[in-house]
Specification:
- By secondary structure, this protein is of the alpha+beta class.
- The chain has two domains: 3-171, Jelly Rolls (Sandwich); 176-216.
- It has five helices and 17 strands.
- The strands form four sheets. Strands 1, 2, 4, 5, 6, 10, 14 and 17 form an eight-stranded antiparallel sheet that branches.
- A hairpin with a 2-residue loop joins β12 (125-129) and β13.
- The longest helix is centred in the C-terminal third of the chain and has 21 residues, at 176-196.
- It is globular, with a radius of gyration of 18 Å.
- The protein starts with a strand and ends with a helix.
- Its cofactor is Fe(2+); L-ascorbate.
- GO terms for molecular function: 2-oxoglutarate-dependent dioxygenase activity; iron ion binding; L-ascorbic acid binding.
- Fe cation binds at residues 95, 97, 152.
- 2-oxoglutarate binds at residue 162.
- One of its GO terms (biological process) is DNA damage response.
Length: 219
């Protein structure tokens, strides 16, 4: 399941992140790629330091506090977020993300866009599926989350500069189809409650969602 989430960050938070990143040194992004991904990865990543750790902590907290992210991803933990920059001509070719990062199984990948889409050309995140390819380029502060099992790429940047925060989640529910089913159940019961309050039908949906979570969750 691919999920688009708006307004993870406020305008003030985005301004702080951009200002901080503009003052930092960036290194070769291939340093964090797997053996085959290094062959197709051409971007830059903010070097570790106190400023990056502060940004990472703040951005992670905002992501984890988002109710849509919580319902769709059911995160147990996040890997350390990376801040990436793509200048003109840079790209990240087709690859699949590493299954284990920082000791965590990677179930869900996410990209949080930090640059306004009109400020750069190209740089779309393209996610492959049996139905075809989907190119994603979101407003700054918006996030896309998708299964880490998918092949994906970042198209070459033709002008401007693409900034993004990327990371991975270990989910309590390993299987993507089960996560989608739980997300749909949560969405349905939330809408039912908003329209009719706490009814017997709502209670039945809540029971199903809770017990399926007990059945499928890995603690």
């Amino acid at each position: 399941m691919l999920v688009l989430i708006a307004d993870i960050l406020t305008a003030e938070e985005l301004a702080d992140i951009r200002e901080t990143l503009a003052s930092l040194r960036f290194g070769d992004g291939r340093a964090t790629a797997g053996r085959s991904a290094r062959l197709v990865k051409d971007n830059q990543q903010a070097r570790e330091g106190a400023a990056v750790r502060r940004l990472r902590e703040n951005v992670s907290a905002r992501i984890l506090a988002n109710p849509v992210f919580a319902a769709a991803v059911r995160p147990k933990a996040l890997t350390p977020i990376l801040f990436s920059r793509y200048s003109v001509g840079q790209t990240y070719g087709t690859h699949v993300d590493n299954p284990i990062m920082h000791g965590l199984r990677t179930d869900v990948s996410f990209t949080l866009f930090l640059a306004d889409p009109q400020s750069y050309e190209g740089g779309e995140l393209v996610i492959e599926s049996p139905a075809g390819e989907e190119a994603i380029k979101l407003p700054a502060g918006h996030l896309v989350a998708y299964p880490s099992t998918t092949l994906h790429r970042v198209e070459p940047v033709r002008s401007g500069e693409r900034l993004a925060a990327v990371g991975w989640a270990r989910s309590y529910v390993r299987d993507a189809a089960r996560r989608e089913l739980l997300f749909d159940l949560d969405t349905a019961r939330t809408r039912l409650f908003e329209q009719h309050g706490k009814t017997p039908e709502y209670d039945l949906l809540a029971k199903c969602a809770a017990n399926l979570t007990r059945m499928w969750a890995e603690d």
